[in-house]
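CO-FOLDING WORKSHEET

Operator: S.A.
Ligand of interest: zinc ion
Run index: 277
Mode: holo prediction, single chain
Checklist:
[x] sequence pasted
[x] SMILES validated
[ ] output reviewed
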Amino acid sequence: MVSVTFFGGGESRRGGQQDGADLRYDIEISLKEAYQGAEKEISYRAAASCDHCNGSGAEPGSKVVTCPTCGGAGRVVTSRGFFQVQQTCPTCGGSGRKPEKACSKCGGEGRVLKSRSVKVRIPPGVDTGQKLRSVGNGEAGLMGGHPGDLYVVIHVKESDLFERHGEDLYCDVPIKFTLAALGGSIEVPTLSNESGRVSLKIPAGTQPGTLFKLPDRGMPRLRGAGHGHQFVRVHIEVPKKLNSDQRKHLEAFATACGDADAPMDEGFLNKVKRFFE
Ligand SMILES: [Zn+2]
Ligand SMILES: [Zn+2]
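OUTPUT RECEIVED:
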């Protein structure tokens, strides 16, 4: 997403001065960049002070004369029906003076469109919608007005591995039903170290949907120190197909369980018993 749009209006000031408008630049970054922070160079076109006339709008060497429109008053009076309306002079912008000859490069506006590039440091922990302000990198002002600012608006791309909730990260990890029953350890993806992996111990008897917490492996806190947490939600995979050897062993396991068809949750069995009473 690369676009520059006008953000705030330039403020009009005395003597034809006008502050430059603020600009908005939308930038898309990955979740990893949001985690680590990044430095991005962004390029855009914006009105900049004309270097031929130094922003004055006057052709170098040309004299500054009294404005012919307002006669130097800076205001003009126009009639609208029964009313007389006093306005800032449109020719000189209220200064009462204007260059005899307008700048040949900018046509007297004092500004020209120029390509610019700005380095932006994106701090670790940013989230979508947050704005970074680059002071003075907006539109140039008119006739000595202040330049506007550049606002860089962050968009963090959705990750297919991690779901972000503020400073916490969630990821879903499938494990085999045998591992859930017997216990063991697995490697899970993480943003919190260079290898991108961290080992997680699965205790014997782990149930579907169990949420494991990996403390301080979430997103860095933008304000304040430390990190959020990473949570790993396990999904238990039941094999869709068994070969004959696997089937034989599972049947032996079922036999070893005794009443092979009954679920192990006694609370549920008791509820069913009461239901039929
Ligand atoms: Zn005038
Ligand atoms: Zn110029």
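REVIEW:
Residues 67, 69-70, 74, 89, 91-92, 96 surround zinc ion (ligand 1) (CB under 6 Å).
DSSP finds four helices and 16 strands in the chain.
[x] output reviewed
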